[in-house]
Amino acid sequence: MMIKGIHHKAFHVVDMDRSLEFYCDTLGFQKAFELHESDGSPWIVYIKIAEGSFIELFYGGTESEKPQLDHICFEVEDIRTLAEQLKEQGIPFAADLSQGKDLNWQFWIKDPDGNWLEFMEINPESPQMNS
């Protein structure tokens, strides 16, 4: 199969500056580049998560309730340390640190537009590691 992995997840955002502050300043990701419409108006900002992995932030979002099933998950090395860092920054948790049925540790937050973000530390005994 030719598929190498997941490249990006896209979100529409209401306030680009607020979203960039959250993803770059709070979570520590990096603004990679922007794309513009043919008339020069802003269209998408790419946020680099890791090598070859991005979030696309589209202008023109609306305030609406986002379902938890429509989320993005970030794999992390030390979930407890990250959870403490985000709590110290005043980030409210949508779901506190817990161990899932797959044995992985996880917690959830929402971005400024209500998009669900999952952070997960993979357990070596988890089905993800053994499939």
From TrEMBL:
PROSITE patterns for this protein: VOC
Q: Which InterPro entries match?
A: Glyas_Bleomycin-R_OHBP_Dase, Glyas_Fos-R_dOase_dom, MMCE/EMCE_epimerase, VOC_core
Q: Pfam families of this UniProt entry?
A: Glyoxalase
Give start and end of each VOC domain.
Answer: 5-122
- Which keywords annotate this record? Lyase, Metal-binding
Which Gene Ontology BP annotations are present? L-methylmalonyl-CoA metabolic process
CDD domains, from UniProt? Answer: VOC (cd06587)
Any one GO MF term held by the record is:
lyase activity
Which named protein is this?
Lactoylglutathione lyase
Which species is this record about? Answer: Alkalicoccus daliensis
